[in-house]
Amino acid sequence: MPERDEGQRRFFKNIEENEALMQQVFEKDDVFIQRQLRTKDRSRCFIAYFDGMVNAEIINLHIVKPIQEMERLEQLSDLLEKVISTEQAKIEEDTEKAFIAMEMGDTLLFVDGYAAVLVCSTKGYKTRSVEEPDIEKYLRGPKEGFTESLMVNTTLIRRKLLSPMLKIETYCPVEHTGERFALVYLADVVDQEILANVKKKLEKLQIPPFMSSNHLEERICPKWQLFKTVGVTEKPDIAAAKILEGRVAIICEGSPNVLTAPFIFLEYFQTGSDYYGNFWFGSIQRLLRILGTFLSASIPAVYVSLVCFHQEMLPTELLVSISAARESVPLSTVFEAFLMLIAFELLREAGIMMPKGIGDALSTVGGVVIGQAAVEARFISAPLVIMIAFTGLTELLIPKLKGPVFIIRLYLLTLASFVGIYGYLIGILSILALLVSKDSFGLPYTAYLDEISINNLKDTLVRAPIWMLRVRSVRQEK
User: 456 and 466 in contact (C-beta within 8 Å)?
Assistant: First the structure.
C-alpha cells in the first residue's frame, strides 16, 4: 500500500478532503477507480474500488443505481438499511480497515458530511476452479481439491461437515496487508488444550506479506525440525476427516495447502486412497510404504557397510560378483555412493523443474544413459548403480517424506562409512530417539507405536475394514 501519514486513522467529514486523501494514498495506481455520484436531492457521494477485484454488475445494480434513484439522504445508516442491497455492507470509521477491505475486493462509499464510509461487499476477482490436485489423486473417491481462495476452501469443508458445531475463525495478523488465515474445528470434538496451544502460537506470529502455508507452518512448528509436526493436504475430504478426529485445520489465503494439527509420524504413511478401495489392498499398500521408507534410507549405508567392513556377512558368490564388478573402478565405494546419490538427486530435480513431457524424458533417459555410460567406462560399479536405482524407486512411495529421508540417508551413509554396520545402527537408534522425544502440540509424535494391540493396529500400520473403524479422537490419542 502506498505510504501516507500514519497518524491519519479516520476519514474527514468533507467529501473533497476524502477525495484528496484517496488520491494521495493511491497515487500512481492505474487500477484505482473513483466515481462521483449524486442523489435526486443533489447530495454528493463517491465510490472507490480496484478494477479487476470487483464485480461491476453488483456495483451498478446494487450501489450506483439505488443511490441515483434515491430521493433524499438523511442518515448514513439509511443507505445501509434501505438503499444498498449488496450481500454484505457495514459502516467503517478506521481508514486502515477500510483500505484493506477495498484491496480485498470491496467497494467504499463516501457521503458528504460523514467521517465514515460504507464498505460494500463486491468481490468479483477470478479464482482457480475446484479441480483434483496432482499429488493426491484417487482412482476412486472425490476429485475436488482446495484452491487459493480462503472462502472457497472453507465452503468445501463446510459442505462435508454439516454441523452447527463447526467453527471457522478468521485472522488477519498483519495490519497493513490483506493476508488472512482461518482456523477450522469442531467445538464439541476438538481437544481444548490443543486448540489453545495452536491459538497461542498463531497469536505470536510476525507474518510477512505474501504469506504461504509453508511460511505459516515453519513459524508455528519447532525450529530446526527434521520431521513435520503439522500435516498438509490439498483434499477437502482428508481435512474434514482430520477435523472429525478433533484436529484443527488452518487455511491460508492464497494457498491450496491446508494445514492440520496435531500431526503424528504414522500419518505420513496414510493416504486418502486407502479408504476408497479394498481394505486388504489398502493394508498391503500401507505396509509397502513403511517398508519402502526404511529401505530408501538404509540401502546405501547397509551396502557400504557390507562391502567395506563386513564382507564375511555376504555369500561368497555375491562377494566375488561384487569384487569382479569393482575391478578397475578407480573410486572408493563410499565416494561412489555419495556421488551416485547426488547425481540421482540432480537428475530428479532437473526432471521436476523442466516442462512435464521433457522432464519425464530427461529423468528417465538421462538416468539410463548416464548410468550405462558410467558402468561401461569403469567409472562406477554396476552393483552400486542397482542399489541407488532401487533406493530412488522406494523413495517415490512416500513423496511427503522425500526431504527427511534424503537427509537421513546421507546421515546413515556417513556413519556407516566410518564404522560400518555399527555406525548404521547408532544412526537408526538416534533417529528413533528423536522421534520418541518429539510431540505435536502436546500429542506424542509416536502415538500408537508405544503399545502393540489390536485396537492400535486398526488404522495405523494396517487399514482395517470400515465396519471395524470408528472416528478416533485426538483426546484418545493423548
Answer: no
